[in-house]
Amino acid sequence: MDPTAHHFAVTVSDLDRAVAFYRDTLGLDELSRFSVGGEAFATGVGVEGASAEFVHLDAGDARVELVEYAPEGDATAETGLNQPGATHLGLAVDDLDSAYAGLPEECETIAEPQTTESGTRICFLRDPDGTLVELLET
């Protein structure tokens, strides 16, 4: 699989406030700002009807990804990715379908690989302690 660090994500309740903190307090530069929605994204993150605003900040060899979901935090969501404070580790892979096919049978995934409307292919899985790990192919 040979994954490399891509991003470390934090779900926030107020994207502009969070960006100000990470930019002004920690000195991270904003790399990009974008939104993602659609059925593939909602299925990929396991949150019905999900859409989100994203900001990527430069943290050297990886990015800090700040995410604000709309509508904010459905407490019944299985994954909790849309809850403020939620975190996940994002690892880039060259071939998501091969990586997915090579996962052990006991590895819990949210859904099979999905192609979001931004063109990024994603698949979320859980480590043995339940921490969310996103495999992505851009």
TrEMBL record:
<dbReference type="InterPro" id="IPR004360">
    <property type="entry name" value="Glyas_Fos-R_dOase_dom"/>
</dbReference>
<dbReference type="InterPro" id="IPR029068">
    <property type="entry name" value="Glyas_Bleomycin-R_OHBP_Dase"/>
</dbReference>
<dbReference type="Pfam" id="PF00903">
    <property type="entry name" value="Glyoxalase"/>
</dbReference>
<protein>
    <submittedName>
        <fullName>VOC family protein</fullName>
    </submittedName>
</protein>
<keyword id="KW-0479">Metal-binding</keyword>
<feature type="domain" description="VOC">
    <location>
        <begin position="4"/>
        <end position="138"/>
    </location>
</feature>
<dbReference type="InterPro" id="IPR051785">
    <property type="entry name" value="MMCE/EMCE_epimerase"/>
</dbReference>
<dbReference type="InterPro" id="IPR037523">
    <property type="entry name" value="VOC_core"/>
</dbReference>
